[in-house]
Amino acid sequence: MTSNLTSTLKDTAKHQGLRNQLAALLKEKGITDKNVLDAIKKIPRHLFLNSSFEDFAYQDKAFPIGAGQTISQPYTVAFQSQLLEVKKDHKVLEIGTGSGYQTAVLCLMGAKVYSIERQTELFKQTSALLPKLGIRPKHLSFGDGYKGLPNHAPFDSIIVTAGAPIIPQPLMAQLKIGGRLVIPLGEEHQVMTLLIRKNETQFEKHEFGEFRFVPLLENKN
Q1: What is the C-alpha to C-alpha distance for residues 22 and 209, in angstroms, rounded to an integer?
Q2: 118, 120, 100, 14: which is closest to 22 by C-alpha?
Q3: 211 pLDDT band (50/70/90 cuts)?
Q4: Cα gap 151→30, rounded to integer Å
Q5: Is the pLDDT of residue 5 over 50?
Q6: 3-class DSSP state for residue 10?
Q7: Do 26 and 72 meet the contact criterion of CB atoms below 8 Å apart?
Q8: Separation between Cα atoms, residue 77 and residue 160, nearest integer Å
Q9: Which of 11, 18, 177, 189 falls 20 to 30 Å from 57 in CA-CA distance?
Q10: What is the mean pLDDT of residues 135-151?
Q11: Dist. CA 69–CA 95, nearest whole Å
Q12: What average pLDDT does this structure show over 86-114?
């Protein structure tokens, strides 16, 4: 993370203090991965939000970001990130770049992030914002998250940041053996689901309770 943010991207000692408080709250709520908590402390979440929400940026809440999408609740971001068990230089596929906040967390955890966004407005905003913050994903793509990125597969882990009625088969196919896929499954309410690929045909499934996400959309040309 670069410290020389432009004048329109101010990050102050007050913001840092609020981030520290947020990380402490997430730790109280059960987040134990030090790399996740360190990333939360470093990333200026207020810069990923509309300026009208800045005063609320470090509350543990989701907020609108345009195009009918939201920036996820920090606990949700931290919980999904922790489930991935990211190691340095892991190839991580992110379905739903959105504001780029989850992307930033994964990058600061040491992952090589490949991310897909289907909303043109958000794709353009995030592609412009991340480099200004010194955050450089391996690959940002505009397209259909249901299809994944077969040309860059296989991935050590895959994270889906929108509610999906099913697990898209292409994503399962693009996961390495031993890899982890984290996806919120369901229609109105989603169950956070972890799949661990055991071999070519078998996946181990774990469930972690209900969360709420915007829907994962498909068929984007």
Answers
A1: 22
A2: 14
A3: confident
A4: 36
A5: no
A6: coil
A7: no
A8: 11
A9: 189
A10: 95
A11: 13
A12: 97
Q: Is 7 a catalytic residue?
A: no
Beta strands in 85-171 (DSSP E): 91-95, 112-117, 139-142, 155-160
Residue 181, both tokens: 């896929």
CA atoms within 13 A on the CB side of 76: 28
Give the C-alpha separation, 56 to 137, whole Å: 26
What are the tokens at 117? Answer: 């966004």
**How high is the pLDDT of residue 218?**
59
Residues 123-152, mean pLDDT to the nearest whole number: 95
Token reading at 56: 């609320």
Neighbours of 160 (CB within 10 A): 25
- Residue 36 near residue 109, CB atoms below 8 Å: yes
pLDDT digits (tens, 9 = 90+) for 194-208: 999 999 999 999 999
Beta-carbon contacts of 14 under 8 Å, excluding residues fewer than 6 positions away, are none
Alpha helices in 139-185 (DSSP H): 169-173
Please state, in angstroms and rounded to a whole number, the distance separating the CA atoms of residues 174 and 201: 12
Which pLDDT value is given to residue 32?
A: 97
